[in-house]
Specification:
Elements (H helix, E strand, L loop, with lengths): L28 E4 L3 E4 L1 E3 L7 H26 L4 H4 L3 H16 L10 H35 L12 H25 L3 E5 L6 E7 L3 H24 L10 H24 L3 H31 L7 H10 L1
Parallel strand pairs: 3-5
Antiparallel strand pairs: 1-2, 4-5
Length: 319
């Protein structure tokens, strides 16, 4: 710093090339051209300054609205064979879960807070586990329904709403229990990362326990893998409205998305890590919606002649 000062307006932390004494900049500032400390740019997915947020919001809201419309279609046509064939209640639960999964994206946007950091992973984990559990219950019901059609089969006593409700409740409850343990032991919290970049601060959520985060994702992956295996085994069972093939493709999409998510999540930094997870959430939810419900909506709205009980019975007899 020059001495005596050249101007009374000189900032005391300004430095010049011929300085005799240097002063370290605060953590939220950095030396610009080595002669002045300036504020670091704070990076997060801002609603006001980031156009990517607007794109994500449009995609999330549009798909949640489409899911809501499909839910209404299924409610209106709830007594038709194509809706009743694979448990209409599970279809309603699955559609609501998918809609909420799209809306979970809002928790990942904006400036991180204690509330959003604690809710973003756990809420999505619970909601998506309910969705995967519903798919698993659907697949199990397809398999048991076929086994029960055989004369003298002991599978008939397992056919009923109680079995599907137990599958959904038990699988979802485990995820809820894992989330409660995570939040009570080492909950996520907002933090400012000043070490990653020299000229900017990353405002992010610290997951608290990466082990708990990994277990949460791993449990969802386990449910998806089991659903895929059961659906793959039941894909050729004789039922004209058999969802097993559609479930197989949907679970293949989900597993592919989240397997690709792991290396992508580990290789990016800053707000890009949040964008990668948002992409995985939207892609996996859309994969389930498209593979399972779009074909049914096509039959209900475009080919209603296929949505009859006689058509269902005729195709089973032909097989």
């Amino acid at each position: 710093m020059t001495w005596p000062p050249q101007s009374p307006d000189l900032n005391p932390i300004e430095m010049v090339w011929d300085s005799l004494k240097c002063q370290r900049c605060p953590e939220d500032e950095w030396p610009n051209d080595k002669n002045q400390c300036v504020k670091k740019w704070v990076e997060f997915l801002s609603y006001e300054e980031d156009t990517t947020v607007l794109i994500v919001l449009i995609i999330s809201v549009s798909f949640s609205v489409k899911t809501f419309f499909i839910l209404n279609i299924f409610i209106v046509f709830r007594d038709t064979p194509v809706v009743r064939a694979n448990n209409q209640t599970l279809s309603f639960i699955l559609l609501v879960s998918i809609m909420l999964s799209f809306l979970c994206v809002f928790l990942f946007l904006g400036r991180p807070t204690h509330v959003t950091c604690m809710l973003r992973q756990t809420s999505f984990g619970i909601i998506f586990s309910v969705a995967i559990s519903s798919i698993l219950a659907k697949t199990i019901m397809v398999y048991m329904a076929f086994k029960a059609t055989k004369p003298g089969s002991s599978w008939r006593k397992f056919i009923g709403v109680k079995v599907t409700n137990c599958v959904v409740f038990f699988c979802s409850f485990l995820q809820v229990l894992l989330s409660i343990i995570w939040l009570s032991t080492s909950p996520p919290f907002p933090e400012q990362n000043t070490q990653l970049y020299q000229d900017k601060i990353i405002f992010q959520c610290n997951e608290g326990s990466m082990l708990a985060f990994s277990i949460l994702l791993g449990y969802m992956g386990l449910l998806a893998a089991v659903s895929f295996i059961v659906a793959f085994l039941a894909r050729n069972l004789p039922d004209s409205f058999n969802e097993a093939k559609n479930i197989t493709f949907s679970m293949l999409v989900v597993c592919s998305v989240w397997v690709a998510f792991i290396p992508a999540y580990m290789s990016v930094t800053g707000k890009n890590t949040v964008l990668v997870e948002i992409f995985a959430i939207i892609s996996s939810s859309l994969g389930i919606l498209g593979c399972i419900f779009f074909p049914k909506c096509y039959i209900i709205l475009v080919r209603p002649e296929l949505n009859t009980k006689s058509k269902l019975s005729g195709q089973i007899k032909a097989i």
